[in-house]
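so i finally got all the pieces together for this one. its two components total, 286 residues if u count the protein bits. some of the lines might not be protein, just check the labels. i wanna see the whole assembly predicted at once instead of chain by chain like last time, that was a mess tbh
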Amino acid sequence: MYKAFIGKQSTKVKNTVERLMVKRFAESIGDPHPIFVDEAYGKKSRYGNNIAPPTFPRVFEFGDIEGLQLPSKGLIHGEETYHYERPLLVGETLTCYSEITDYYEKEGKNGLMGFFILKRFGDDDNGNTIFTEEQVVIITEAVRKAMSV
Amino acid sequence: MSTLVAFQKGESLQSITLDPVSRLDLIKYAGASGDFNPIHTIDEEATKAGLPGIIAHGMWTMGNLAKLFTPYYEEGFIQDYKIRFSGMVFLGDILTLQATVDEVTDTYTVFHVKTVNQHGKEVIKGNVHFAKHQKST
């Protein structure tokens, strides 16, 4: 039962904002702006460095929550929220982890739907949280039954 | 280029219409993001999952929408970016990115943002809280 996972935190994983990953990512969303990809431009910018696009943490790993098994298929991504204290800088390393902050069920068109609220964090070396990410992930009754949970 | 801080409530940024969504767009995003869920790249897997065809990663669409703000990073940055995924995006869809000012204060501007397809349907929708850099005195 997924409710038991509310409040559970994952292991922590270090992720570096790698220059080439930022370039590939920016290109893949059609946004290869020099603030992301041009080193000289980044140095001259107010950040003194290149930065990463706001949805870049998609490439990060956020650790595993012990015992939690989500289906690899059939999940619906309902909502996504990012919060930043400042943009991420190319070259910096963040300590990332996740937490299940809520789980509830609602009757929908396709039966009983489960809603996960997953929160993710990225902290700097001093333990300051630089960004958070919150996802609402919906798991349908068909998928839940197939997993017998 | 006009500066973003000059925008007033009700005004819109210049919208951007993307080229039709291609399979290569989604293959590139899968590789760049590490999201290899095959419903985004392989026809048979999408069909098996009950979809009419492969669909774009929601996060690809969300990533695209943010580029309306990229030219303005010298003025501020995206502090909050919230999106609700409301429709599927298929190959060949023609998406338009839109942002309209909802609120202006001394320290931030809030935009309603959305991406609509060629039928005028919203596929993602939400808001951007753009924090303005404070001038050092």
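The CA atoms of residues 18 and 28 of chain A lie 15 Å apart.
The domain at 2-17+61-147 of chain A is CATH 3.10.129.10 (Thiol Ester Dehydrase; Chain A).
anyway lmk what u think
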